[in-house]
Write a structure and sequence with these properties.
The complex is a heterodimer. By secondary structure, chain A is α+β, with helices and mostly antiparallel strands. Chain A folds into two domains: 111 residues, no CATH class; 136 residues, Immunoglobulin-like. In chain A, helix 5 runs antiparallel to helix 6. By secondary structure, chain B is α/β, with parallel strands linked by helices. Chain B folds into three domains: 38 residues, no CATH class; 297 residues, no CATH class; 86 residues. Helix content of chain B is 43%, strand content 14%. In chain B, a hairpin with a 2-residue loop joins strand 11 and strand 12. In chain B, helix 12 crosses helix 14 and helix 13 packs antiparallel against helix 14. The longest helix of chain B has 34 residues. The chains are: A alpha+beta, B alpha/beta. The interface between A and B is large, with 48 and 47 residues.
Chain lengths: 296, 460
């Protein structure tokens, strides 16, 4: 009886609910995002198990290029997974399990031509960007040179992926790590057509080693290595104070580069290289490849 | 002799001005004011404004650039050339995500690594007939014939020629632009015709291809072929029977100014949104190829990529890394070639769908606009005249941009504006010359203010 009386109300509710569905869908289509997911790094076979976006209480798959809206949360469950986002509020940020969930805030400025014009008028009052230096020397295939870790024997940790960069020479290049003794066997070898490479130092490596970079015409440069399984203990404040893992890796690398004597430079470069697509790490590696050390 | 109060009156104005300038300099604002004046006079800035105001985003094509950037090259170990298996993988991903069209902005005239070439050949050979239309960049080189003009260009063979032949949904295009005397790219070249004894052929530009396959109202590829055939006949065999005029595009402007709306910046940098199929979509998206690669260097599965990034968007696969040596000066700064193509593609429908207008028509409209501005401003003071002209320029840009191509509207308004400035200069010179006889060198000075007439009193 009660249901019969409520039937018109229920029907009206169902009608309104059904009618509002396309409206909600249209709202979604017309919403302006706060930014986008620009990278997903995960060893998991199923990315949905490693990370997801929480949107209005529902889990949405993390996909490269996917839009992020105000109120979304980036949730990373798997410890080795990170989601790289670019939003109006966060600019470029790597979200990992330690910093999950990460709330998304803001909205991209989404104006028409008049707001674009207004922005252009605003440019008139903007100061010109600072001048930058540019190297005007023509590029040549000079002598094969290597700057990183040349001054003292480099301590390296077995089981890590070493990053090495050089200049000049003719491609293809061969990077080899072998025992320093005469006729020492090769522990790791990799070929490269560019001027940097990552080579994995086996866990079994021990004692004095040699890292050699050779080019296509037989030129070779070398670095003396010493396998050392105990790297210097990095202060806890570095890992605790770092807002992201990538930031922490660059800070660790900088701390290692500050050690005297400079026997952990190669290890520092390896740590910075592990930071992935992170501007500060790439800048640091570029400087190290050129033989420059960050000044305090 | 002037009275002291007169001297104070004369010196007060410069003293106050000097104090104001000194005050502004103290807070660092003088630089900004100087910068404002310098920025306002920048010709390319006016061109950019006119591009925005004249409706360059009308029916715009949403574009996604898959950028083989420095980060991608670093992941690949800095190879000297982009691996072609990577290019094939990226194109395959774009096709799987149902892009509206794909343009490979890569030179394939020289062989690369055997594995990479093989992968790209296999991709082209197996490209399905129902996959999104694919455009490949044809490299052009100097003509190696005696007597050929220096600027003449000829098609260079590609390693993909045999694989592409006979495929209906794969086209060769020419990715070339006009470079002005100051080495700045401002205009596109809509197509390039190569005449030969057997009749020759015309290659479209990426923007013509995109306007056909990726606009809100897509056209069949046969429209591009019809345009190319008509153009070939008009250029290579002008004496032959008149070819039927190609119905599309409405305004085949071969030298239109590119509306540079997309700058070189990250994905979150002030994007523009357009309406497409009832949705708000970003005009331009840019994704690093590295983001679409696994740590092993392979391309991610299509389901790992959001539909919004590629579906129903025109996808350009190009390179911005330094080794590509494909950077050019534009009105908005130094841009990679792929980004110049993106600007041309995005705004192509607004140009190609505009009302065509020849040089005579454009000149007449510019003259009419000039006449109207002069009539309205002839009795106004300089400041008021400047405001009226600024408003007239804005309104004209918007009005003309709705009828003609935005580039044409910009050209007309800039011409009229230039004529106003030129006539004002002539008017000033004429006044000086006229007064020179009577006043000599004092004709160069501002006319003195008329003195207040002396009071007269009636003598009773």
């Amino acid at each position: 009886m009660l249901l019969a009386r409520m039937r018109p109300a229920l029907l009206a509710f169902a009608f309104v609910a059904a009618a509002s569905l396309p409206v909600r869908a249209e709202d979604e289509a017309m919403r302006t995002p706060a930014g986008y997911i620009v990278g997903v790094e995960t060893p998991a076979a199923d990315p949905d198990e490693a990370a997801h976006i929480l949107r209005e209480g529902q889990e949405v798959s993390v996909q490269i290029g996917g839009a992020l809206f105000d109120g979304d949360q980036v949730v990373v469950r798997e410890p080795r997974t990170s989601v790289v986002i670019e939003t109006v509020n966060d600019r470029h940020l790597r979200v990992d399990a330690a910093h999950s969930p990460h709330p998304i805030k803001g909205e991209l400025p989404a104006g028409g031509r008049f707001s674009a014009f207004a922005a252009m008028v605003g440019e008139l009052f903007r100061a010109r960007p600072e001048a930058r230096t540019v190297n005007l020397i023509g590029r040549t295939d000079g002598t094969l040179r290597l700057q990183l870790g040349r001054t003292v024997t480099q301590r390296v940790v077995p089981g890590t992926r070493l990053w090495i960069a050089w200049d000049g020479g003719m491609k293809p290049y061969t990077v080899e790590i072998r025992g320093r003794a005469e006729g020492g066997t090769a522990l790791a070898t990799t070929r490269a057509s560019g001027r940097s490479a990552v080579v994995a130092l086996p866990r079994k490596a021990s004692g004095p080693l040699l890292l050699a970079v050779s080019d296509a015409v037989g030129a070779q440069v070398r670095i003396d290595l010493l396998a050392d399984p105990t790297p210097p203990a990095v202060p806890e404040w570095i890992s605790e104070g770092a807002p992201t893992p990538a930031f922490g890796q660059v800070a660790t690398a900088l701390w290692l580069l500050d050690r005297k004597p400079a026997e952990w430079d190669l290890h520092a470069a390896a740590i910075a290289a592990e930071a992935g697509n992170y501007g500060a790490a790439e800048e640091l590696l570029l400087r190290l490849a050129e033989g420059k050390r960050p000044a305090r | 002799m002037k009275r002291p109060s007169r001297w104070i009156g004369l010196l007060a104005k410069p003293a106050i001005l000097a104090s104001v300038i000194g005050f502004l300099s103290f807070f660092g604002l003088a630089d900004q004011i100087a910068g404002f004046s310098a920025n306002l006079g920048e010709k390319d800035r006016i061109v950019r404004w006119s591009a925005v105001l004249s409706g360059a985003t009308r029916d715009a094509v949403p574009v996604t650039l898959i950028d083989i950037d420095a980060a991608t090259m670093a992941l690949l170990g800095h190879p000297q050339r982009v691996p072609r298996d990577l290019v094939a993988g990226l194109a395959s991903l774009a096709a799987a995500k149902r892009a509206s069209g794909i343009f490979l902005d890569m030179d394939t005239s020289q062989p690369g690594s055997p594995a990479g070439d093989q992968a790209l050949l296999a991709f082209i050979s197996a490209y399905p007939g129902d996959a999104p239309p694919l455009a490949l960049a044809r490299r052009l080189g100097p003509v190696e014939q005696a007597g050929s003009r220096d600027e003449a260009l000829a098609e260079q063979p590609s390693i993909l020629d045999a694989a592409v032949r006979g495929r209906a949904n794969i086209l060769w295009v020419t990715s070339i632009s006009r470079i002005d005397e100051d080495r700045v790219v401002r205009r596109w070249e809509l197509s390039r015709t190569f005449c030969a004894p057997d009749g020759g052929r015309t290659l479209p530009s990426p923007q013509l291809f995109a306007a056909a396959v990726a606009s809100a109202d897509p056209r069949p590829l046969s429209d591009i072929q019809a345009f190319a055939a008509a153009r070939t006949q008009a250029i290579c065999d002008p004496g032959a029977a008149t070819a039927p005029a190609s119905p599309w595009p409405r305004n085949p402007d071969q030298r239109a100014a590119i509306a540079f709306l997309i700058a070189d910046g990250p994905d979150h940098a002030d994007p523009q949104f357009i309406r497409r199929d009832g949705r708000n979509v970003p005009l331009f998206r840019r994704v690093s190829a590295r983001a679409l690669m696994t740590s092993a260097g392979t391309i991610v599965a299509p389901r790992a990529v959001a539909d919004d990034l590629l579906r129903d968007r025109f996808v350009i696969i190009g390179a911005s890394h330094a080794e590509s040596l494909d950077g050019h000066l534009t009105p908005i700064g130094f841009l990679p070639g792929a980004l110049i193509v993106a600007n041309a593609v995005a705004t192509a429908p607004a140009v190609l769908s505009g009302q065509p207008l020849g040089p005579l028509g454009a000149t007449l409209i510019a003259l009419a606009l000039f006449g109207a501005m002069m009539v309205v401003t002839s009795r106004l003071r300089a400041v008021a005249a400047s405001v009226v002209i600024a408003v007239a320029v804005l309104v004209s840009l918007m009005a003309l941009g709705r009828i003609f191509a935005p580039s044409t509207a910009g050209d007309i308004v800039l011409a009229a504006f230039g004529m106003v400035a030129f006539l004002s200069t002539l008017e000033g010179l004429y006044t000086i010359c006229k007064e020179w006889r009577a006043r000599g060198w004092r004709a160069l000075l501002k006319p003195e203010k008329p003195q207040a007439s002396q009071r007269t009193e009636d003598i009773a």
